[in-house]
Amino acid sequence: MTLNPAAIEKRPGFLRRMYDWTISWAERPGGTWALFLLAFAESSFFPIPPDVLLIALCVGAARKSFRFAAVCSVGSVLGGMLGYSIGYWGYDVIGEPIVKFYHGEAVMQKIQGWYDAYGFWGTLAAAVTPIPYKVFTIASGVFKFPFVPFLLASVIGRSFRFFLVGGVIYIYGPSVKAIIEKYFDWLAWLLLILGVAGFLAIKFLH
Q1: Is residue 7 a part of any domain in this protein?
Q2: Which of 45, 57, 77, 157 has the fewest Cβ atoms nearer than 10 Å?
């Protein structure tokens, strides 16, 4: 069998194939569950942020954007509660290996400093910024931040992030879809870079 060089050249890249596959789930119940599970896992240990799947699902079914944002928010907050529990009760066994894996020790100290200086508003700032949410949730448990303010900050911060994405796609649907599909590979890399930048920004922020 002879491979056609033109066909190889036109074959979409891995990220594009993943995007197309994700889009196909937008109208299926499985896509919503996958979003929930990804958002839940990312809040305590999983490295991939749910934004990519959220964007793909919203683009595939723009009229359901707010529903997807709500699912993502609920999954993320519930996962954050798990992260808090890991930090509070199981840091030595579970939490510390996770934090070390992401090189998040310095980030945890910054989060504690924000809380000591600004209380609830420092917690909210940590929830909204692009720092890895899993480090924030585990740190909140380790330093025994009051649970109710932590939960409130998580609800506000995560909902703001995900509903902003869903709202933009809901309002500007077709035009946003065209832009995302044209520049999806670049956007996916940008999300990854922002995740890394979150660590660096907090590490060097005073």
Answers
A1: no
A2: 45
